[in-house]
Amino acid sequence: MQYDHILVRFGELTTKGKNRKLFIGKLVQNVKAALAEFSHLEYQRTYDRLYILLHDENQEAVVEKLKKVFGIHSFSLAIKVNSDLEEIKKAVEYIVENCEGTTFKIDTKRNDKAFPLSSQEINRVLAGHVFNHTTKDLKVDVHHPQILVKVELRKEYTYIMNDVVKGAGGYPVGIGGKALLMLSGGIDSPVAGYLTLKRGVMIECIHFSSPPYTSDRARDKVLRLVEKLTAYTDKIKVHIVPFTDLQLAIYEHCDESYAMTCMRRMMYRVACEIAKKNHCLVLANGESIGQVASQTLESMSVINEVTTMPIIRPVVCMDKLEIIDIAQKIDTYDISIEPYEDCCTIFTPKNPATKPRLHRVLSYEENFDYESLIKECVENTESLLICAHPKNEEDLF
Ligand code: ATP
Ligand code: MG
Question: Which of 188, 282, 321, 333 to mutate for ligand 1's pocket (most ligand atoms within 8 Å of CB)?
């Protein structure tokens, strides 16, 4: 006896009325992409569920991948048997033996009213069977069981499943358009990327790099962060912008206290160009109110002034500790705290303006031809594709 399939329940999307078909289609497509390496899996769909037939594939590995697919509400490992009491008993026994815990409950739903026993009677018979055959020291707990075995008895077949595993929630990636994520090597922006993906929005990433002031290792760090994010979507395009010349010009022509404001305005300008070129509707970033000088409301409004493109800031109102919690959960934290410096850190002025004035930054920007420098940045941007499956990693295109 072993689990032979996984029953997947769809999430928030079941409430989405006429878009439902589209959503479920996307979700199923994403599930298949996430599980592409398991070539023996077979998929069956009903109105509100997806059945994944395991056919001897490694169930733990499949479960780990499935936990990261947005749009899944929950899923359970399950066994399908004929609606025959002896077969059902064996399946229940197997599940109780293979789940962790010492208290259990059996919860039977009987769709086939012609079956000779009632749901309650079936529960009792199955629990009795478990007690007679188990190697564990078990107790029944009907209120808070550690092991909940659900039995769905239908006319021909019965489905027996273990406890419900919580899915990743959110919407299937790809149903919400595409955002360009400004990805530094820090803690916040990968979390912002994860939260954006969770809303069903696909991402591409843009990273500003300032060689030789920033090293290859800083760049490599960013690519490894992107790779972590590919656990939630199949592939991610990354645009690396050579930012050195523009950054040096900013420091030459702006008062030092305004260099940060001006630099971030330039980043937004370049990012908007790259976004338009790649059909991204919005920018996304890891800004969080008050964290640094450039993230006061005054700074944000002066910086944001360069564009009307919407900017989503998923972590804008979160505490650093809340952000760190998510970073640890998605396994980006340890990479983010590696010490390689990015372009912001290297050019950080001693006293950046926390309440910059628009007219001042505009007057500094009149001092130099930033538009042609922006054009150069856009033209010389290098684009890479990072894939979830290592063999295709970093295909240059
Ligand atoms: P993070 O932890 O994400 O680096 P931060 O708290 O260090 O954020 P800043 O350095 O001011 O804050 O950056 C704010 C946001 O601007 C980042 O979250 C990121 O979205 C974007 N950003 C900063 N530096 C870069 C960069 N070199 N390339 C791309 N985006 C960047
Ligand atoms: Mg940073």
Answer: 188
